[in-house]
Every structure is written in C-alpha cells, then in structure tokens.
Design a protein that fits this description.
There is one protein chain. By secondary structure, this protein is of the alpha+beta class. 48% of the residues lie in helices and 14% in strands. Strands 14, 15, 16, 17, 18, 19 and 20 form a seven-stranded mixed β-sheet that branches. A six-stranded antiparallel β-sheet has the order 1-2-3-4-6-5, covered by helices on one side. It has a three-stranded antiparallel β-sheet with strand order 7-9-10. A hairpin with a 2-residue loop joins β5 and β6 (81-87). α14 (479-494) packs parallel to α16 (518-534), α18 (567-578) runs parallel beside α20 (601-613) and α25 (685-695) crosses α26. The longest helix has 28 residues, at 699-726.
Length: 794
C-alpha cells in the first residue's frame, strides 16, 4: 500500500499491526490532516450483518471527544477494503518508553490518572476497550496520554439501559492480548468495565516495576498463571514504590472481578487522592513510604456463572485486615457531616440465596453507626426501599434528609467475608472515603465496629467513652451462629406472625451454637416481645406469658453478655411500660437505651408512649418528632407518628403525619386507619368510613356502616360497629369493644372489658387514661380503682 491511496486517503507510512488489522499513517486529502487508518483483514467482516455491527461500534466510538481518547472519524469501505479512520496521535507509546525500564512514580500516577479518566468516559457510554496495554497508550509531546485502538471494544448497554449487551468484535473468539487479559477474559466469560480495570492494573504494574506480573513465554503456562498464580508484590521489584500506589495496583489485578474496583470512578478517586497527597507533601522521602507487606493465606472463592460453579484460586493481599483505603477532599472543605444513611449493601456472590447475608450486614452496620450520638443515622426501615434503586445519591440524600450515604458491597466466600464501604457526599454525589475489609466470618462483629470507627474519623466525630467501649474489642463469633443470626434479622424485619416465628427459631439456633452471642439474645428478646404484641386478640394468654418470660430472660442474658447493647434495654422498657405499668423502670431502661444508641427510633416511640401516659405532652411531641426525623423515608414511621399523635389528642398533627405517609404510599392501610380514627373522634363519620374502607373494610361493610349512620346517626354507627366486633371469634381487640360500649353509654360492659384486658395484660391498656375514648368513664369508682392499680396519674 505504500505509496498508494485508499479513497481520498493518501498512505504515508505503516504504523503497526494489531489483532484487528494493520494501521497506517495517511493524509486526508479532503480535510488536509493526518489520520491513522486501520485496514481490517479481508474477510473479517464477511457479510453485511457483520459490517453493520462494526459500523455501530464505530458510531459509538465516534461519540467520544475526550482529551485522553483518540477520536474515531469514520468507517468506510473502499473497493472491498474496510477501513476505520482515526485521529493520528504523534509521540511514543508507553511500551516504547518501558524499553528503557520502569517509570518514575510521579509520572506513573500522572499518566494513570489520565488513563482512568479516559476509561471512565468510555465506560459511561457503555464501551469497554478489552485490549488495554502499553502499546495502545501513547504519550504526546506535551506529556498528555491518549488511549488508542478501541477496535476490540465490546459495545455494552450504558448504565440504566435495558438493552442486551452486544459484542461487536469477532464473535466466538477470545479477543485481547494475553499478558494483559483478566482471568474471566481468558476463560471466555462475559466482560465488563472491571476487565479494563484489570488490564489497567497490569499496565500500571509494568510502568511502576518495568516487568509484567506474569511474563511466561508459553501461552498455556501464561494463561495458567493468570488464572491461578499469585501476583508478586510490586514493591519487591521496585523497593521505593509507595504503599498507596501498590495497594491501588493490587486491587486492580484481583483475580475475582468482585474484589477489584467496581468502577473506574472509584479507581479515579484513589488515584486523585494519591496525587493530592504527593503534591501536599513533596518533601517526604521515598523511604518513608516503603512498607513490608504481610500476606494473608490463600483462599478459594466460588462464583456461579449461569448455574455452573467455577472455582478460582485467589491470592488476597491484605495488610492489617483491610485494603484499598482512599480519601478525597470533601466538597465545601470543612463542612461537617452529621446525618448518614447506610444504603442496602450489594450482594456480590452472584447467588440470590445470599441476599439475607447482605441485608443482615446492612442492619448490623446501621446499628453500630447508630451508637454514635453525634450522628443521625437512618434506620434500616427507611433505606431498604432503595435496594437496587436507580435513584442518584443526591436524590436519595434529599428524600432521607441526610448529609451523606454509605454505599457498599458484601462478598462471602466460605468462611471469609469482604465488605467494601464508601462514604458519599449526598449533596454533591462525590466519594469522600472508601475502604475494603477482608475478614474471617468469626471476626465480622469487629469488622462492623471498625467500619463505624473509620466513618466517625472521616466525618470528624469524637467518640465518647461509652461509644469507644461499644466499638472496640468485639468478640469473635461462631460462623454458623452468625449465619443463623442474620437469617433471624431478615425474618424479623418482615414483622408478620409467621416470619416472627421463623426469627425466633433462627435466633435460638444461633444461641445454641454460641451461648455467649449477645446480639442473638437481644434479637430473640425483641422477636418474642413483638410476637406477643402482634397477635393482640388471637393469642392464648398463656402463650403470651411464655413469650414475655422468654423476652425478659433473653434481654437479661444479652445485657449480661454485653452491657453496651441498646436493644435489650428497649425490650425491657416495653415490658415495663405495656405490661407491668412500671413507669420508673420503663424510664430508666429507655434512658439507658438512648445513651447506648441515640438513633433508635423504636426507643423514641416507647418514650413518646411513656410521656403520653404520664401526661408529659411536650416530651411526647418531641419524641414523636424525633422518631420521624430519624426515619424520614419510612412510610410506617409517619403512620406511627400519626397514631401516637392521635393518642396524644393532637388531631391536627395526626392528620398531617398520616397524610405524609400517604405521600409515600397512597394505599398504606395504617395511615388510612389513623385518619379514620381521627375523623371518627371528630364526628366526621362519613369521612371516617371512607378511610376505613381504604384501610381494609370490605365494600359491604362500608355500605352497611353508612346505612346505619344515615338511619340512626352516630349511635346507629356505634351499634353496627359493636355487632361487627362481637361477630369476630375471638374478639380481635378488647379495647375496641370497650371503646364502642363506652361510646354507647354501656359503662358496666366497658369497665368489665377493661378489667379483663388488665387480667390478660393486654398491652395497650396503659392508654385508657390518655385517649378520649374513655373520658365518660373517668368518674366511675370502678374505673378509678383500675387506674390506681395500673399506677396511672390522677
């Protein structure tokens, strides 16, 4: 072809050759500029379908106008020859530069940052390079880097798209250059952005050390090494290499994609942080950054691909139990972060059966962070709605009213677990900190505490002595016990009777394996109390007493095993409040619980209930407000606030809270039920019936209730309600029966029902002196005697 023409391109000289054809320097005689022509091998695009697919790739690449990516100008066919026309890039390739040995670290970091910025732009458009290597990276005379030859790129659907992935390179063949290929690429498995991250890591390794991680000349032995052999620490080849750069490189070249950086954005944060630290401390000697690495044991991970188990040996380099720490300057400089939400941790196992593990770890990390008084931490009930969400971090931050969110992932393999956590500024969506932790499952309690301590340091919170005690020195836990405990947490969160029974079973399994497991005792106490309350009317009183006895005993054992756990104190407060009428004990337990975890929204609601009973209206109102402040994204928290406000006789706030709940879920039954109660108390019976229908009444019930009201007014409506409640076997709620009897003026029947509720220790009986339902009974000596036995205020 030299000299010669292809169309209006005059061939000047040959630049080189690659897997997708030969490359020539040419002159575009139409636009009077130098270009690079990639002449595709004859037969590569054997038919029009293949040519259309490749044209689609060229179209995708032509969208880029990035300073670190060589531009694609055109794709054309001339006399049967297929040509890709690209920007001509002068200068030398990194492979040429490496012919004289390793590059200075400062230059490596600078070029690596440009490389990853270019890759991030390509990945954002759904384009994966798949053949990244030093020969495809060119250094311009001004020092800038250009990424060349996206000719082997796979065109993937961009993030958020539902389109199927498409491969536009040679179908059926493994494409790439073997020494820089990721293990999944060698095996011929699907590739994604993490494949490019691996190749970038190998390239950085070679730039920093002058050698490749694996350099065997035999193709078979080289492939075997990439799949199974450990990567020698770069610092053993380049002794002056900083620990920070080494950690970045090692994280890039993890054999399992799930253990690498999950996006080029995360990698870019670490590189910029490293660059900033070098700029801010130029006088630090290279020797100060040289660290000896302690290598952990080899361990194997199992990954499921289309139902087939592939076992890959993974060498995990870890020092002091964690890898890959990174910090970026915070937007706004000194702005303090004081409210946080832990978003649902992603399950990276590839096995849907492991979702419980990720969800349970989300809960325990949230609980540990909640122990820090200076932080407002959203409870799990508020954040689980964002599981697999497409919403942006700024949008989530606005909805939850938080300054920052914690994102992350969990990978469990056998008896080891890795958590990757990122702290993200909710307003700007910028990474502030990220770190990966690699532990045995038996050390997972300490792992969560360590993450919480790290976040506290990042947001500049000084831990109190109690918080220091709570977040240090956590005991080891039996892995099987921990597994059962996480199953119990997830079952408990569903709050149905059947799931509560399952939760009790799981917590008991955990305790049988590890009798000193304080968190499992605390979980069992909560589940037993909740189960006793959930079946208000249908549970045998003896069964309720057995559950309550178990709740008391389990809470006491939890406190004995670990006095810094808040949840058992909340359980004991609930029992003292709703069943024992022991107001001083309830107040003491709640005070202690909120000392240990000021972010416990449930404790705030118990405090509100206690304050309602003791007629401390302002305290009750503040506790209700605090509960929704802690859990602003939870529809149930707004509905509960409405119900508690109704008990407080604050009908305006009850309507406002219930209406807020309906903004989240217009069909939420409990919110409609609260509105029905308020409207009924206000005498707005037609409106109340409409809300009760939305809460669950049948059309027939609504029609009958309206007919009774229109026929006989409020008394007719109450008589209809009484007949409906008496028809239920057993009666669902003794207090509801007593309420209707009191409204009808049946004082003796109402007080008899309240006495029965007292004997059966019905939990909501404590409200009889507060709610307006029983005002007509207050002068009756029998009611006064009952109130005194319950130690209610005069």
């Amino acid at each position: 072809m030299i000299p010669g023409h292809i169309g209006h391109y005059r061939i000047v000289g040959r630049i080189g050759a690659g897997g997708m054809g030969e490359v020539y320097r040419a002159r575009d005689e139409h636009l009077d500029r130098d270009v690079a022509l990639k002449v595709l091998p004859e037969g590569l695009l054997a038919d029009e379908r293949a040519r259309r697919r490749f044209r689609k790739e060229a179209l995708a690449l032509s969208r880029f106008n990035h300073p670190y990516i060589a531009t694609v100008h055109d794709f054309a066919t001339y006399d049967g020859t297929d040509v890709l026309v690209m920007e001509y890039v002068a200068g030398e390739s990194i492979s040429d530069r490496l012919a004289t040995g390793a590059m200075p670290e400062e230059q490596v970091v600078r070029l690596a940052t440009q490389l990853v910025e270019g890759l991030a732009a390509a990945h954002a458009e759904g384009v994966i390079h798949r053949d990244l290597k030093p020969a495809n990276l060119r250094i311009l005379p001004d020092g800038r880097l250009k990424i060349l030859d996206f000719g082997l790129a796979a065109l993937h659907a961009p993030p958020g798209s539902n389109e199927q992935s498409q491969t536009v390179s040679v179908e059926g063949n493994i494409a790439g250059t073997l020494p820089y290929m990721a293990p999944e690429q060698v095996r011929g498995e699907p590739t994604d952005a993490r494949t490019d991250i691996y190749a970038a890591g190998v390239t950085l390794y070679e730039m920093a050390t002058g050698q490749r991680p694996f350099s065997d000349t035999s193709t078979l032995r080289l492939a075997e090494a990439i799949l199974h052999e450990p990567c020698v620490a770069p610092s053993r080849l380049a002794h002056a290499l900083s620990s920070s750069l080494e950690q970045i490189i090692l994280k890039c070249v993890e054999k399992a994609p799930a253990l690498r950086y999950q996006s080029t954005t995360d990698l870019l944060v670490d590189l910029r942080r490293l660059s900033a630290s070098r700029t801010s401390a130029p006088s630090a000697g290279a020797g100060a950054s040289v660290r000896r690495r302690r290598w952990g044991r080899w361990w194997r991970i199992a990954a499921g691909v289309a139902g087939i188990a592939v076992v890959t040996a993974v060498a995990v380099a870890w020092r002091a139990g964690h890898l890959g720490r990174s910090v970026a300057p915070r937007a706004g400089g000194t702005t303090l972060l004081r409210s946080i939400a832990v978003l649902p941790l992603a399950n990276l196992s590839g096995d849907p059966q492991q979702e419980y593990f990720a969800d349970g770890m989300t809960e325990t990390l949230t609980t540990d962070l909640g122990k820090i008084r200076a932080l407002k931490v959203c409870p799990r009930t508020s954040v689980m709605q964002y599981k697999a969400t497409q919403k942006s971090v700024p949008q989530i931050g606005r909805e939850l009213s938080v300054d920052a969110v914690v994102e992350g992932s969990v990978l469990r393999v056998g008896e080891r677990v890795r958590i990757t956590a990122r702290l993200v500024d909710a307003a700007a969506g910028e990474n502030l900190w990220s770190e990966s932790y690699d532990r045995e499952v038996r050390d997972v309690l300490e792992l969560h505490a360590e993450v919480a301590r790290a976040i506290a340091r990042e947001v500049q919170v000084a831990l109190t002595p109690i918080e220091q005690q709570q977040l240090t020195g956590r005991r080891k836990v039996d892995p099987t016990a921990h597994d059962a405990y996480l199953h119990g947490i997830v079952a408990f969160s569903r709050l149905t009777g059947a799931d509560m029974d399952r939760a009790i079973g799981y917590f008991e399994q955990a305790i049988s394996r590890d009798p000193a497991f304080a968190e499992a005792h605390a979980g069992l106490s909560s589940a037993c109390l909740m189960r006793s309350l959930a079946l208000e009317g249908g549970l045998d009183p003896q069964v309720r007493q057995q559950l309550l006895a178990k709740a008391r005993a389990s809470a006491a054992r939890a406190i004995e095993a670990d006095e810094t756990i808040a949840r058992p104190h909340v359980v004991l407060a609930g029992i003292a409040l709703m069943l024992d009428s022991d107001w001083p004990r309830a107040e003491w337990e709640l005070t202690r619980a909120l000392e240990l975890n000021p972010n416990d929204a449930g404790a705030q609601l118990y405090l509100a209930m206690l304050s309602i009973v003791l007629q401390r209206r302002d305290e009750a109102r503040r506790a209700i407000e605090r509960s929704v402040e802690l859990s602003p994204g939870s529809v149930s928290s707004w509905a509960e606030a409405g119900e508690f406000s109704f008990w407080l006789r604050d009908n305006d706030r009850a309507i406002a809270y219930a209406s807020k709940a309906l903004e989240f879920d217009a069909a939420y039954p409990r919110a409609h039920f609260v509105l029905g109660r308020v409207f009924e108390a206000q005498g707005r019976i037609e409106e109340a019936i409409a809300e009760y229908e939305k809460a669950g009444w049948s059309t027939e019930q609504g029609r009958a209730a309206r007919a009774a009201f229109r026929r006989s007014g409020r008394r007719g409506f109450d008589q209809w309600q009484l007949s409906r409640l008496l028809a239920q076997d057993p009666p669902v709620d003794l207090l509801s029966l007593a309420r209707v009897h009191a409204s009808l003026g049946h004082t003796t029947e109402a007080i008899a029902l309240l006495e029965r509720a007292y004997q059966e220790k019905r939990p909501l009986l404590l409200l009889i002196g507060s709610v307006a339902w029983f005002d007509s009974l207050h002068g009756d000596p029998r009611f006064i005697a009952l109130a005194r036995r319950m130690r209610l205020p005069e």
